[in-house]
Amino acid sequence: MATLRDVARRAGVSIATVSYVLNGTRPVSPEVEARVWEAVAALRYRPNRLARGLRRKRTHVLGLIVPDNANPFFAEIARGLEDLSFAHDYSLILCNSDGDPVKEQRYLGVLIEQQVDGIALVSAGATPAHLAILQERGIPFVVVDRDLPGLEADCVLADNFQGGYLATRHLLDRGHRRIACITGPSDLTPSADRVRGYQKAMEEAGIEPLEVWIRRGDFRAESGYHAARFFLSLPSSMRPTAIFACNDLMAIGAMRAVGEAGLRIPQDIALVGFDDIVLAAYVIPPLTTVAQPTYEMGRLAGELLIRRIQARGRPPARYLLPVRMVVRHST
Amino acid sequence: MATLRDVARRAGVSIATVSYVLNGTRPVSPEVEARVWEAVAALRYRPNRLARGLRRKRTHVLGLIVPDNANPFFAEIARGLEDLSFAHDYSLILCNSDGDPVKEQRYLGVLIEQQVDGIALVSAGATPAHLAILQERGIPFVVVDRDLPGLEADCVLADNFQGGYLATRHLLDRGHRRIACITGPSDLTPSADRVRGYQKAMEEAGIEPLEVWIRRGDFRAESGYHAARFFLSLPSSMRPTAIFACNDLMAIGAMRAVGEAGLRIPQDIALVGFDDIVLAAYVIPPLTTVAQPTYEMGRLAGELLIRRIQARGRPPARYLLPVRMVVRHST
DNA sequence: CCTACGAAGTTAAACGTTTAACTCCATGGA
DNA sequence: TCCATGGAGTTAAACGTTTAACTTCGTAGG
Q1: pLDDT score of A149
Q2: What per-residue confidence (pLDDT) applies to B257?
Q3: What is the mean pLDDT of residues B274-280?
Q4: Would you say the C-beta of B186 is within 7 Å of strand C?
Q5: Binary contact (A54, B51; C-beta < 8 A)
Q6: Which Pfam families does UniProt cross-reference here (chains A, B) (predicted)?
Q7: Residue B243, pLDDT score
Q8: What mean pLDDT, rounded, does chain A reach?
Q9: What SS3 state is found at A178?
């Protein structure tokens, strides 16, 4: 509650001098400097970042919008971004959009009013128009995980196409021909790209996937469970011997369905996931999956953001991060 | 970038009038009000919350400090708090302490400088002294999940003692006598309370647990894995037939060790966890566990915080939330 | 000896709000 | 007719910083 004014009074100098000492922005004589620090300590002075932000027009606060921070994938991104922010003395405001463009829009408004220096988002909206408000005001931002077609902005993505391709190749190499795919919401690019990778691999192998082999999920475990039950209900001539789920949560849901049906993984049904969340290694059997550098994506988003805050002019860059097969015992 | 001043100019009124219209703090004639709203819309005006906060001494920002937001348990708490904050038009700053009291202290400083209206924390420090800085400045705060002995503050806890007791009773009821326990870091009250519940149940059953049956973990899957391997390496006369792990992550780690040893759950070894994280239902076999109302704890923390911001005087309250056995197939 | 200069301090404006206190004016009651 | 009242607007101070511009003074160069 002590202010610069109080410190100045106690040290017997002007407010400006105290500010110069604190920020090291101008040389100050040693005696005065000592008196100021003494006063700062005695009064337990802490600068008021609101006042500073108001004056400097820089708040050292970033915003992060994700669909759901309780989803381990987004949690990891958040963690990466938070770590980087802390290292650079930025604070991070967390927002959950629930995948709802309207809620996302409200959050964008709040973050703008909060005068954040930059925003990282896993966008819920499908079109760049949703982010016009940011461009209009020249607020630095970076989109993570999901691509917005035609958007002029920094962008951090995993190589989802390659991931879908690798996962499917892996199953093909194991001798599978009837390979099913549990997709995510199809309007999201990560899911769509993974499915494209799947299709490419199948095509290269000369296999035309049956329509019933492609089943839409919503990235949650429950939907993987239902999709797998559907596959298992197919007549045996059409029933897949392997499933590629577009994320681990759905793969784990599928696992449960397979277990309940009394079938064994991988002997009866092989299973590949996507994301390599922590628990993928701990389910039984441990899940073969495609690892994304999730934490790194969060960090990189932070780096780009801070870089852009410091130098707005540069052209936007797209970062496509490599994915990696993690072979465990579900295949 | 438009300010009150710009809006006022365009509407042909004074700054104060615009403020009154925006906040509805004083009656304004219909014509003037209309002109103001027109100007607000035309200029895409958005209030600057820094300036407002500086003046009002209320920022409508809360802080949350957890050890690690990527841990599903804390992620859920964060989600609960964030939802409540959003509903009350508060923003939330997320901080990860990594369980390090020094880092926690730095974050407290940052949040104070940021002038947050209140702080929720899962404290890393073991003594109330760590939070003196908050009390000194009269900043509302609530501690979640972990109790600080002798701390005068609002506090949201799960009934960990009861949880440990129930879990152990459950195993005893299933006929187990040699029951091991994987604890968390012992200086944390949730872990200690759960262990006390375990001991109470054992004592009531007239069983004196061997020392080797109590093994310390760190709440991460890896440590559960190692603890279980240790149990399995005991001579068969001492080897436990059931394990109570103080959280799900460690239970899942233990599962893996059991699986690797070629033993079956629950036939050879029964397993109970704690927390009921989402994935507990999806591991194979599904994990019997003690459910905490995690999301609710986050929400309640937010409610208490906001209530205390509005009325500082009241005496602090402790909320002990009930836990619930969730019986699945690991026992 | 004068001047110019640099070091080290101070003053005051500015950032964008909120809000207490003031002005102005129409209205109605005595 | 006069005054009190209150509705609707304005003025200006305040919140806690930063920072450009100014003052003061000792010193060195010409």
Answers
A1: 83
A2: 94
A3: 88
A4: no
A5: yes
A6: LacI, Peripla_BP_3
A7: 98
A8: 95
A9: coil
Q: How far apart are CA A320 and CA B7, in angstroms?
A: 43
Question: Domain locations in chain B?
Answer: 4-47, 59-158+294-321, 160-291
pLDDT category at A151 given cuts 50, 70, 90 is confident
Smallest Cα–Cα separation from A176: which of A104, A106, A235, A239?
A239
- Count Cα atoms within 13 angstroms, Cβ side, for A151: 25
Q: Whats the size of chain B, residue-wise?
A: 331
Tell me the pLDDT band of B130, cut-offs 50, 70 and 90.
confident
What gap in Å lies between CA B201 and CA B171, rounded to an integer? 10
Lowest-confidence region among A280-289, B12-21, B61-70, B236-245:
A280-289
**Nearest CA among A147, A149, A153 for reference residue A133:** A153
pLDDT at B282 over 80: no
Domain covering A59-158+295-322, topology: Rossmann fold (3.40.50)
Which of 150-209 (A) contact B at CB < 8 A?
Answer: none
A69 vs chain B: nearest CA distance in angstroms? 6
What is the spatial distance between Cα A126 and Cα A148, in angstroms, rounded to a whole number? 6
pLDDT tens track for A62-86: 999 999 999 999 999 999 999 999 9
pLDDT at A190 over 80: yes
The pLDDT value given to residue A88: 98
CATH, domain range B59-158+294-321: 3.40.50.2300
* Most A-contacting residue of B284, B297, B328, B329 (CB-CB within 10 A), to test interface: B284
**What is the Cα–Cα distance from A290 to B207, expressed in whole angstroms?**
47
What is the CATH code for A4-47? Answer: 1.10.260.40
Could B279 and A252 be called an inter-chain contact, meaning their C-beta atoms sit closer than 8 Å? yes
Please, which residues have CB within 8 angstroms of residue B16's CB and are 6 or more apart in sequence?
Answer: none
Tell me the average pLDDT across B120-144.
92
Residue A225: φ, ψ to 5°? -60, -50
- Identical fold for domains A59-158+295-322 and A160-291, yes or no, is yes
CA–CA dist A274, B105 (Å, integer): 37
In this structure, what are the phi and psi dihedrals at residue A315, rounded to the nearest 5 degrees? -70, 150
Write down the pLDDT at residue A284: 80
**What dihedral angle (degrees, nearest 10) is formed by the CA atoms of B186, B323, B95, B182?**
30
The answer to whether A61 contacts B221, with C-beta atoms less than 8 Å apart, is no
Protein-covered nucleotides on strand C (Cβ within 7 A): 7-12, 14-21
Q: Does domain A160-291 have CATH number 3.40.50.2300?
A: yes
pLDDT at B187 over 80: no
- Distance, Å, A47 CA → D10 C1': 34
